[in-house]
Design goal:
The protein has about 220 residues and is mostly beta strands. It is built from 2 helices and 16 strands.
Length: about 220
């Protein structure tokens, strides 16, 4: 069972996220069904092992996602996301939640776009946090800290009009090394040359430390 609700060319693939998908692979995450504001969804958090592990090894821009059995290189991925901080979240937690894509068979290479909702403009955070609400990275070589240190003026993170505990639509448009990310329809990242070679791979529902992420209405169009 793939968990597909619809698979027609004019709609792409629409995933039923009302319950954990039997054919999915769990990479250091815990997954359960949930209903938030009347919307059926999946709740994804780090596994206990990952959450109690080592910074930069077990969490922070690591392969921590529910991987779906889809082969994807180019196209569009769209999902509704809601993020909350857990009671034991560390001070640096920002409600990290997003999508991984082009996941290699061993999950040792992938790309990702994630949100930091507590850095969203709706909360009026101080600078520079107000410009760090959405992030691209490429695992394992180009995580957020290297991108920020080596290319501080690069297009890999940006402001977004978001906040925690609110449903957010995240849409990724991917064409080889080009990436556009839209948040609630607004273009927020526009990257002409991403940091990984294009390759077919899986798609994941990604979370990081201190976060419970809720995912609904996942659509995938391959091109």
């Amino acid at each position: 069972m793939l968990g597909l609700e619809t698979c027609r060319p004019e709609y792409g693939m629409i995933f039923d996220l009302s319950k954990p998908l039997p054919a999915a692979t769990w990479h250091d995450v815990a997954v359960q069904s949930a209903i938030i504001e009347g919307k059926s969804c999946l709740r994804v958090t780090l596994s206990d092992r990952a959450a109690q592990g080592t910074y930069g090894v077990d969490y922070v821009d690591q392969p921590t996602f529910l991987q779906l059995p889809v082969d994807f290189m180019n196209g569009k991925i769209e999902v509704d996301i809601l993020s909350r901080l857990l009671p034991d979240a560390p001070d640096y937690a920002r409600g990290f939640v997003g999508l991984a894509y082009r996941i290699s068979p061993k999950a040792d290479h992938f790309e990702s776009v994630y949100l930091r909702p507590t850095n969203g403009l709706r909360l009026d955070p101080p600078p520079p946090r107000d410009q760090r609400a959405i992030q691209y990275f490429a695992y394992p070589d180009w995580k957020f800290d290297r991108l920020r240190n080596e290319e501080p003026d690069g297009p890999y993170e940006a402001a977004a009009d978001i906040a925690p505990d609110q449903w957010i639509n995240l849409t990724l448009e991917i064409d080889r090394n080009q990436l556009r990310a839209r948040v609630n329809g607004a273009l927020t990242l526009d990257i002409a040359t991403t940091k990984a070679d294009p390759a077919s791979g899986g798609i994941g529902l990604w979370v990081d430390i201190g976060t419970e992420g809720f995912f609904s209405n996942l659509r995938i169009e391959r091109r």
